[in-house]
Each structure stands twice: as structure tokens, then as C-alpha cells.
Amino acid sequence: MGKRYPSDEWIKELERVCNEDPEFRDACGDFSGKFVLQIEAEPGKLDKTAFLFFWADQGVAKDCCALSSLDERPDAEYVITGKYSVWKEMVRAKLEPLRGLMTRKIKLVKGSQLKLLKQVRFTLKLMNNCTKIDTEFPDEPS
Prior knowledge:
Layout: E1 3-4, H1 8-19, H2 22-28, E2 32-40, E3 50-57, E4 60-67, E5 78-83, H3 84-91, H4 97-102, E6 106-110, H5 113-117, H6 120-130, E7 135-136
Parallel strand pairs: 1-7, 2-5
Antiparallel strand pairs: 2-3, 3-4, 5-6
């Protein structure tokens, strides 16, 4: 049985997958960043906006969890927001996150876009690890 996206169990599974992947550690290098991913509700797809916290700290993913609001992690350096259907495309590797940023399908509402764009290897490896999770989406039959 898969992990429901977006949820606490899903983001914790991503943390586990990343920490077991030596390529993720290498891709991060000395980069450290705390992210809140805001997955916006869409009628008939996702009933309520969700917030996922992901901390990459020099090759180690830690403290990953679902949040009830942005206010829970004011220390996040990056807040990235987008519609549920766009996040779903990225989790399925149908849309690269940097392309999503450049085409404004997702938006960086907090943090340095330049600094984030320099982390191509980290971003691609993170999203590749998303595809390793057996994921259930709320708008698809189980």
C-alpha cells in the first residue's frame, strides 16, 4: 500500500529514501536549506491546502513533516507554492521543478531564486527520489 500524497507519512518516506541514497548526499554537497512546500487545494482533487517541510542539511534530510500552516516553520528559508496538480506532475517526474519555477507553474514566495537555481543536482536528485515512493494521490482511485 502506497503513501498518501501530500501527508506526513509521505514526506517522512521521502526523508528515509533520501538518507539511504548516497547520490543524494553527493548532490547536496555543502548545501543546506529548509523548505516549506505549499500544495494548493484544487476542487475535486485536493480539498485542503497542504504544507510539507523538508530540511536538506549537507546531504542529510531531517525533521521532515507535514505542517498545518506556514507559521509552524518560520525558520524555513524557502517557501515554494503551486497547485496540487503541478506538484503531482513533479512527484511523477513529468515536470522538472526548475522548469516549473521558470514557467511560474510553481512560485518561490520566500528565498533566493538564484541560490536555488544553483542547486540543480540537489533538486533533480530530490525529485528523482520522489518517484521511488509508492504514492497514492487523493484524486485517483486506490
